[in-house]
UniProtKB/TrEMBL annotation:
Domain 3-hydroxyacyl-CoA dehydrogenase NAD binding: residue ranges: 296-474
Name under which the protein is recorded: Short chain enoyl-CoA hydratase /3-hydroxyacyl-CoA dehydrogenase
Biochemical pathway: Lipid metabolism; fatty acid beta-oxidation
Domain 3-hydroxyacyl-CoA dehydrogenase C-terminal, residue spans: 478-564, 602-685
Gene3D superfamilies with a match to the protein in the record: 1.10.1040.50, 2-enoyl-CoA Hydratase, Chain A, domain 1, NAD(P)-binding Rossmann-like Domain
Origin superkingdom: Bacteria
Reaction catalyzed: a (3S)-3-hydroxyacyl-CoA + NAD(+) = a 3-oxoacyl-CoA + NADH + H(+)
Length: 690
């Protein structure tokens, strides 16, 4: 590779321009400037009769450089490049040797013809980042595949395999032979005058668009609020492709792209994309870190959580031993797990063969000794009780092969204390799955003080192989997600006491973009769960425990914060609830009042954010983005709001600090005071996200 991110060579009268900008050949400014220059060089070189544009590695070009998306631009743009290519006297063929996404596929559309290696995928995923294609994609794709199909591809952002791309007309040829040789052949066949998409009119009657538009707007709503501005802009831009003034439509597309790029949704969604990738980088772990080989996983405790973990492992090809203390418990687990597979087959999520193959990977064993013999990884998923967990860990250490990793699925407990009861603290780690474990993507991987890089690397690999999004966190009570969520729980209860209805509280969060609010979540999970734990500890939380006392446990008892007549899943408001809560408030001396939606939002989110900054301060996570990944994938934080840390930056740290101070005063609760980190960043104009 040269410093330009490109390579240029002339072979037999054909200039081959190769993008070579690892890791994904993104269109950084150096690549953009160099492509502009190299096309001009090829056009000017009398010895060149045609140009092949190709890439290096698995990716042709992954599109705009998202890490530079905010950098000021100078020099010719990709639109300038494509306008130049379309005006060239020599044919240019895009030879797609790997994925062509976003700006990458837009460049290919600006060439005179396109050929793809078999196995290549192409697509315009910009809407998934809150953007629209901004280098002519909304104008050229309708001319290639028709307006309705173009809108479908742009609004879904889906990647299209080579065969389908050929069928749709997105590429002119697909080859499993020598791509460059085939591209040369295609160059010779390009008709004269050179075909330019700008000269075509979009295929398909313009009249089709209104109905397509309605369908896409409906889809946009279903996708969530984050996608809406981008999808609406995409609909408008594709409609614009019927304007015969191509250059004017391109200019409008560019303006719309720019508006979205600098808007809140795209900023948040691009951050989410990059944070997900950044969280894969873990201090002390690299590709060179040795891995322990894992084929057999033993799961101790075959309850709902253990069963879910077993399913994810079996689906990924591991042999899974489910371990229980009694035969009936094992039998119940077996029935439950088989039920999950039957459900997946009946919903067409899995073929009967795949379900049978996964089930065949399970072994059902009673007792620890037989259960962990031969295990490479043991995941403990017993009742959340430290005494019990320590006992289990001490036994596991005696019984499991000395090389085996011992993981705990605890949601709260101290991994170092568990490691201390074993002779292999380097091989002890936390694997905090979220319920239901076979569905939820997030996995908090808890690194203890002694956890070795090999152990971490091994469980990280397993997590990815099982389709999880792992985030490494340090030891603290509740780790990252639950520790922060507790602050929201406290505020929810205080808001309810102060006179907010469950609906008011929930609506603020669903308007924010969450699928559910805290009361709806509580009703779903069961209000009795935490109530029982508190009772055992002699603690109380109001008003929720008054509801639990009265048997209002949520959906399972037909009433909780809401009523669920006839087993309904969506709760209806209960007029009898407010007086019950008002009585508790009066007993506790809490004055009820009208609380604004803005205050509810601040109280539900700012203390949680504040706790996130303490977690960051304590080094429990490596970077603020890791907290966001945890909230995006484990707690339903809407993607177009970036995650709690990105949201805090966007909202403005000084405003959050001032509000937290006010809240601490008003509630007489100094734990609500802003963290030192938050205060410092707010005072110095700093940000949580680098
Ligand atoms: C666009 O094109 C706008 C245009 O319409 C208009 C302007 C021309 N930029 O995902 P991975 C990094 S919008 C910068 O783990 P994989 C990533 O952060 C763009 N960096 O690999 C990571 O870095 P690190 C439309 C990027 O093999 C490394 O590459 N395009 C970009 O699993 C590896 O990433 C898209 O939305 C980027 N565009 O998957 C495509 N992409 O090593 C976005 C990745 O520091 N990209 N990185 O952690 C992808 O979907 C996947 O990365 C891809 C490879 C499928 C390409």
């Amino acid at each position: 590779m040269t410093g330009t991110g490109t390579d240029y060579s002339v072979q037999g009268g054909i200039a081959v321009i190769r993008v070579d900008n690892p890791p994904v050949n993104a269109l950084g400014s150096h690549v953009r400037l160099s492509l502009n220059e190299l096309m001009r060089r090829a056009e000017a070189d009398a010895a060149v009769r045609g140009v092949i544009l190709t890439g290096t590695g698995k990716v042709f070009v992954a599109g705009a450089d998202l890490k530079q998306i905010d950098a000021p631009r100078s020099g010719p743009s990709i639109n300038d490049l494509l306008a130049f290519v379309e005006g060239m006297t020599k044919p240019v063929v895009a030879a797609l040797q790997g994925l062509a996404l976003g700006g990458g596929y837009e460049i290919a559309m600006g060439c005179h013809a396109r050929i793809a290696a078999a196995g290549v995928r192409v697509g315009l995923p910009e809407t998934t980042l809150g953007l629209i294609p901004g280098a002519g994609g909304t104008q050229r794709l309708p001319r290639l595949v028709g307006a309705a199909a173009a809108l479908d591809l742009i609004a879904s952002g889906r990647q299209v395999a080579a065969d389908e791309a050929l069928r749709l007309g997105m590429v002119d040829a697909v080859t499993s032979g020598d791509l460059l040789a085939e591209a040369r052949g295609l160059l010779d066949r390009v008709p004269r005058p050179l075909p330019r998409l700008r000269d075509r009119t979009p295929q398909g009657p313009a009249g089709d668009l209104p109905s397509a538009r309605a369908a896409f707007e409906a889809r946009a709503v279903a996708l969530g609020q984050g996608a809406l501005p981008a999808i609406r802009a995409a609909i408008a831009a594709v409609r614009d492709s019927f304007d015969p003034d191509f250059d004017a439509a391109i200019a409008r597309e560019h303006a719309a792209f720019h508006t979205l790029r600098t808007g809140p949704e795209a900023r948040a969604m691009i951050h989410a994309f990059l944070a997900e990738r950044a969280s894969a980088h873990v201090a002390g772990v690299s590709r060179a870190t040795p891995r322990l080989s894992v084929a057999q996983v033993s799961i101790i405790g075959a309850g709902t959580m253990g069963g879910g973990i077993g399913i994810t492992c079996a689906n990924a090809g591991y042999t899974v031993t489910m371990v229980e203390t009694s035969a009936p418990a094992l039998e119940a687990a077996k029935t439950r797990i088989e039920g999950v597979y039957i459900g997946q087959v009946s919903r067409d999520r899995l073929t009967p063969e795949a379900a049978a193959a996964a089930l065949a990977r399970f072994r059902w064993v009673q007792g620890l000794e037989a259960g962990v013999a031969g295990a490479d990884l043991v995941i403990e998923a017993v009742f959340e009780d430290m005494g019990l967990k320590k006992e289990v860990f001490a036994q596991l250490d005696r019984l499991a092969p000395p090389s085996a990793i011992l993981a705990s699925n605890t949601s709260y407990q101290n991994i170092d204390e568990l490691a201390a009861v074993t002779q292999r603290p380097d091989r002890v780690v936390g694997m905090h799955y979220f319920s239901p474990a076979n569905v939820m993507k997030l996995l908090e991987i808890v690194r203890g003080a002694a956890t070795s890089p090999e152990t971490l690397a091994t469980v990280l690999d397993l997590a990815r192989k099982t389709g999880k999004i792992p985030v490494v966190v340090g030891v603290c009570y509740g780790f990252v997600g639950n520790r922060m969520l507790w602050l929201r729980t406290v505020q929810t209860q205080r808001l309810l006491l102060e006179g907010c209805s469950p609906r008011q509280v929930d609506t603020v969060l669903t308007d924010f973009g969450f699928r559910m609010g805290p009361c709806q979540m509580g009703d779903m999970a069961g209000l009795d769960v935490a109530w029982r734990l508190r009772k055992a500890r002699g603690e109380r939380m109001e008003p929720v425990d008054t509801l639990a006392d009265a048997g209002r446990w949520g959906q399972k008892t037909g009433k909780g914060w809401y009523l669920y007549p006839d087993g309904a899943r969506d709760g209806v408001d209960d007029p009898a609830l407010a007086p019950v809560v008002a009585e508790v408030a009066a007993r506790l001396g809490v004055t009820q009042r009208a609380v604004s939606a803005a205050e509810i939002e601040e109280r539900l989110l700012y203390p949680l954010i504040n706790e996130g900054t303490r977690i960051l301060e304590e080094g429990i996570v490596e970077r603020a983005g890791d907290i966001d990944v945890i909230y995006l994938h484990g707690y339903g934080w809407p993607r177009h709001r970036g995650g709690p840390m990105q949201f805090a930056d966007a909202r403005g740290l000084p405003a959050i600090v001032a509000t937290l101070d006010r809240m601490a005063e008003a509630q007489g609760d100094d734990t609500l005071r802003p963290s030192a980190l938050l205060r410092r960043l707010a005072a110095t104009g700093g940000r949580l996200i680098d």
